[in-house]
Amino acid sequence: MQKISRHKTRTCLFQALYSKLHLEDSFSKESFIESFFESDDSFIDKIYFDEAFDWIQENEGKLIYIINKFAPKFDILSMPIINIIPIFIAWYEMLYLKCDKIPEKVSINEALEMVKMYSDDQARVLVNWVLNSLKENKEKIIEELENIPNKNLFFKKYE
């Protein structure tokens, strides 16, 4: 049995969210984890994975609104989803994570590692800029969070 790894869990979460976008209703978290890890999912932090997977889909519209307001130069509609999912994951950790507290710097660095793995350096610079802009405005965002509209763009089921 392996030790639970938040890094590996984030990678799994990234791939699960990406798969969910493409498979839509035919996607199953349980089947994904089982087939992806060939029954050795002992290193997955299941509480974190489940909370993040559901929260990101349910609050995607709010996340998009926040990005548009506090990082207006970031055109979310023109960005590949592989550059957006790491932002969603980091923001989940920075705003909502209930199972434990992760330093914001760690959340940002992990998001940048995901972008580095799946995208390019230009995207990494942009994602870093967006996350730092959001971090700088975190208090304002938290104050506004309840009143932010939640119109989903990617995960349509949650509209």
UniProtKB/TrEMBL annotation:
Query: Could you confirm whether the keyword Cell division appears in this record?
Result: no
**What GO molecular function annotation could you give as one example from this UniProt entry?**
RNA binding
Which parts of the sequence belong to the NusB/RsmB/TIM44 domain? Answer: 7-134
- Give the protein name, as stated in the record: NusB/RsmB/TIM44 domain-containing protein
Span-the-membrane segments of this chain are 76-97
Gene3D superfamilies per the UniProt record, alphabetical = NusB-like (1.10.940.10)
Instruction: List the keywords (alphabetical).
Output: Membrane, RNA-binding, Transmembrane, Transmembrane helix
Q: Which GO terms describe its biological process?
A: regulation of DNA-templated transcription
